Description:
By secondary structure, the protein is α/β, with parallel strands linked by helices.
Amino acid sequence: MKIAVIQGPNLNMLGVREQQVYGPMRLEQIHAQMKEFAEQNGIEIEFYQSNLEGEIVDRIQECYGDTDGIIINPAAYTHTSIAIRDAIAAVNLPTIEVHISNIYRREEFRQKSMTAPACTSSIIGFGPFGYHLAMVGMMQVLSEITAIRAAQQGAVQE
Ligand code: DQA
């Protein structure tokens, strides 16, 4: 099982930027915790961060045929990017959107996600712990897909 973690603009500044909103944890620390959990559960995991919309689109497209699921925090592009939404829809992989802060308790412009409707689900407002929840959620989604495929194959063979 292989999961791609894709982080949008300014998330490389976690631990420095607006600590009252995002807390003191750095992105490297979040990724280290995710990696540890992935290793404990036999999951292959790859991390990517970019401040550029097109690079994020490219990284999502690279997941097609290579990756089982995507955990993505599109950051500010959440609220603007039809291109990222379309890329998520195009690869059609289980995708979980994560937001560290509760975007529904913040400015009005953050309360709409362009990307979430293309995703399987969203985890919002749990701080960095949301990434851990997303991994647990992804394992559940992927095991359900595996079970459905096995049942379908069984039905074909009968
Ligand atoms: C964020 C919320 C966005 O509105 C913001 O632009 C971010 C981070 C979050 O994780 O809470 O950069 O995606």
